[in-house]
């Protein structure tokens, strides 16, 4: 199975700060990568797909990028409603696998 | 509005089975595949499998073959997942999630989750 190494595991940031979360794939996955946000007590919600495409209704402060087998999710100006956990998902090879998650808290 | 309404939380005995439902509304059920995902504290998120209701085709994560069985009832727009021979390792929250129509791995709508607790 493809391993997705997500970092950091937890992150504390201030409002309006730039936040970056990364996932390192254990092998080439092309652009078969999505990012999800999970707010406390809620289901995950789609943010980014195909590594860089913003899902419908997602604020433009979220963006995704790729450099080789490293994928990044960036929040340009952290808002209070962005607090929660973030997960990457690869779907290049069966089975789909996920990063272990990043818990984002407010400083 | 797209909605996936899952059945309620379950407390089940070891060795028993449980069947979770996921009723879809707000879209044409047969036009989209459905993923099932497990979320547990120890293992994070895991893809269990996928069902394509239109053609009743399923695909499973090898890890969950023999554990999970996915079905769909087109007449009621409901997807089901049955988990068998339950152990404490199966205690988790289980989600159904609609797969994007054109990006066939992207989960663009999720159910609220169903918690399964396996305990005697």
The largest sheet of chain A, given as strand count, sense and whether it forms a barrel, is: 7 strands, mixed
Assign a percent range to the helix content of chain B.
Answer: under 10%
The count of helical stretches of chain B stands at: 0
Average pLDDT for all residues of chain A: 97
What is the beta-strand fraction of chain A? over 45%
Order of helices and strands of chain A: EEEEEEEEEEE
Structure class of chain A:
mainly beta
What order do the SSEs of chain B take from the amino end to the carboxyl end, as H and E? EEEEEEEEEEE
| Greatest interface by residues involved | A-B, 21 and 20 residues
Shape of chain B: globular
> Pairing-aware structural class of the strands and helices of chain B?
mainly beta
Question: Between the first and last Cα atoms of chain A, what is the distance in angstroms?
Answer: 36 Å
Sheet bearing the most strands of chain B, described? Answer: 7 strands, mixed
Strand composition percent of chain B: over 45%
Give an overview in words.
The complex is a heterodimer of chains A (107) and B (120). Chain A has no helices and 11 strands. Chain A has strands spanning 4-7, 10-13, 19-25, 33-38, 44-49, 53-54, 62-67, 70-75, 84-90, 97-98, 102-106. In chain A, the strands form 2 sheets. In chain A, strands 2, 4, 5, 6, 9, 10 and 11 form a 7-stranded mixed beta sheet that branches. Chain A has a 4-stranded antiparallel beta sheet with strand order 1-3-8-7, with no helix packed on it. Chain A is globular, with a radius of gyration of 13 Å. The relative contact order of chain A is 0.35. The model of chain A has no long low-confidence stretch (mean pLDDT 97). With 120 residues, chain B is mainly beta. Chain B has strands at residues 3-6, 10-12, 18-25, 34-40, 44-52, 57-60, 68-73, 78-83, 92-99, 107-110, 114-118. In chain B, the strands form 2 sheets. In chain B, strands 2, 4, 5, 6, 9, 10 and 11 form a 7-stranded mixed beta sheet that branches. The radius of gyration of chain B is 14 Å and the shape is globular. The A-B interface holds A 32, 34, 36, 43-46, 49-50, 55, 87, 89, 91, 94-101 and B 44-47, 59, 61-63, 95, 97, 100, 103, 105-108, 110-113.
């Amino acid at each position: 199975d493809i391993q997705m190494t997500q970092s950091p595991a937890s992150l504390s940031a201030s409002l309006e700060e730039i936040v970056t979360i990364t996932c390192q794939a254990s092998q080439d996955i092309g652009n078969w990568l999505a990012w999800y946000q999970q707010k406390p007590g809620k289901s995950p919600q789609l943010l980014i797909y195909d590594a860089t495409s913003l899902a419908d209704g997602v604020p433009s402060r979220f963006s995704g990028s790729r450099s080789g087998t490293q994928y990044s999710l960036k929040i340009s100006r952290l808002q209070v409603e962005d607090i929660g956990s973030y997960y990457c998902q690869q779907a290049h090879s069966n089975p789909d696998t996920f990063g272990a998650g990043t818990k984002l808290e407010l400083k | 509005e797209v909605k996936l309404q899952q059945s309620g939380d379950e407390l089940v005995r070891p060795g028993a089975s449980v069947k979770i439902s996921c009723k879809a509304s707000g879209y044409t059920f047969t036009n989209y595949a459905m993923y099932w995902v497990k979320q547990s504290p120890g293992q994070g998120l895991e893809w269990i499998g996928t069902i394509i209701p239109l053609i009743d085709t399923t695909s499973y994560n090898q890890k969950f073959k023999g554990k999970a069985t996915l079905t769909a009832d087109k007449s009621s727009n409901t997807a089901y997942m049955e988990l068998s021979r339950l152990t404490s390792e199966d205690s988790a929250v289980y989600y159904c999630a609609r797969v994007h129509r054109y990006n066939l791995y992207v989960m663009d709508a999720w159910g609220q989750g169903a918690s399964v607790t396996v305990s005697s």
